[in-house]
Amino acid sequence: MNKPYVRPDVREFLNLLDANPRPVFTAELLAQIRNMPADMMASLDAPVGEMGEIRDVTMPGPGGDIALRLFDPRAQRDTGPVVVFFHGGGFCVGSIDTHAGLAAEIARQLDLPVVSVEYRLAPEHRWPAAPDDAEAAVRWIAENGAAFGRAFSSIILCGDSAGANLTIVTALALREQPASLPLVMQMPIYPATDHTRTFPSEQAFSDGYGLESVNMAMYREHLQADSEHWRNSPLLASQEGLPPTLVVTAALDPLRDHGRAYAAKTLEAGVPTSYIEVAGTIHGFATYRRAIPSADADLRAILGVARTMLTEHLPQD
Q1: How far apart are the C-alpha atoms of 15 and 33, rounded to whole Å?
Q2: What is the C-alpha separation between 105 and 166, in angstroms, rounded?
Q3: From CA 142, how far away is CA 139, in angstroms rounded?
Q4: Are 114 and 107 in contact (CB under 8 A)?
Q5: Is the Cβ–Cβ distance between 251 and 280 less than 8 Å?
Q6: Partners of 65 in the β-ladder
Q7: Is-contact 277 260, C-beta < 8 A?
Q8: Selection from 142, 139, 124, 117 nearest residue 56 by Cα
Q9: How confident is the model at residue 31, as a pLDDT?
Q10: At residue 245, does pLDDT exceed 60?
Q11: How far apart are the first and last CA of the chain?
Q12: What is the pLDDT of residues 264-279, one digit of tens each?
């Protein structure tokens, strides 16, 4: 079997990981990671950069207060869509701070306000705490634009990795019981969509490509989700009636085939769908832009497709 193509800067990053292997993510280690300084946790990504406004807001959630953060390239704006963003981290790590650079870049490239959600994490808060918080946050944001000094007209959902799973799960929940504003688009970036089976990519890229199988197993153990339930494995649900969808995967990602299967199912359901598989790179590239310089151009290209889709499909306010 031929070896897969790996970009030079991706290979350099993987060599660095090989030389400094990550420890197994036990519950004790996860607690330590969450206490690390935010700038250390986000050191692989590009900085937030200039923003017109960054605003922290707190909302009541189903398990306690939920922190939200607005990123807007404009200090003021007219009525329009808002992007609700869910960070990655295997449902066990990650935060508004670790993904601030990505949230800010989405806001900048789409020229839209982005609200990032600090949902509850395992093992302290097992499934379905995260999807409960994600759905509650979207419904609250839809009704409380004034808390951000904005007037929102519609919702766009976006997330990476675990946050991409939450993006799809939340979109399905809003299809069944709409929020007070319409959902007009979803953008899952390297999502996990079906935990009931093992895809070929999970075997091909299980180790040596940045997302190690031992830590993926630990994530699942900490989360203790029901793999047969659509709120953990959204590919099992019908995708009919969902909004326009942009699915992004990485060619060397164990989760690549999850995204492929999901894009195929949305297309089969008649959902306007674009699929981008980024060649020669790995899971997490959107938050590795400092460590993998080519990822910056990748993210810009992805968000360029998102802009085009919004132009084509967004209702005129």
Answers
A1: 22
A2: 20
A3: 5
A4: yes
A5: yes
A6: 60
A7: yes
A8: 117
A9: 79
A10: yes
A11: 53
A12: 999 999 999 999 999 9
For residue 188, which phi and psi values (nearest 5 degrees)?
Answer: -80, 125
Cα→Cα distances 109→3, 86, 302, Å: 34, 17, 10
- The band of 253, judged by pLDDT with boundaries at 50, 70 and 90, is very high
Report how far residue 247's alpha carbon sits from residue 91's, in angstroms, rounded to the nearest whole number.
Answer: 20
Q: Give me 151's structure tokens.
A: 């007037």
What amino acid occupies position 243?
P
3-state secondary structure the chain: CCCCCCCHHHHHHHHHHHHCCCCCCCHHHHHHHHCCCHHHHCCCCCCCCCCCEEEEEEEEEECEEEEEEEEECCCCCCCEEEEEEECCCCCCCCCCCCCHHHHHHHHHHHCCCEEEEECCCCCCCCCCHHHHHHHHHHHHHHHCHHHHCCCEEEEEEEEECHHHHHHHHHHHHHHHCCCCCCEEEEEEECCCCCCCCCCHHHHHCCCCCCCCHHHHHHHHHHHCCCCCCCCCCHHHCCCCCCCCEEEEEECCCCCHHHHHHHHHHHHHCCCCEEEEEECCCCCCHHHCCCCCCHHHHHHHHHHHHHHHHHHHHCCCC
So which residues are the catalytic ones? 161, 253, 283
Amino acid at 100: A
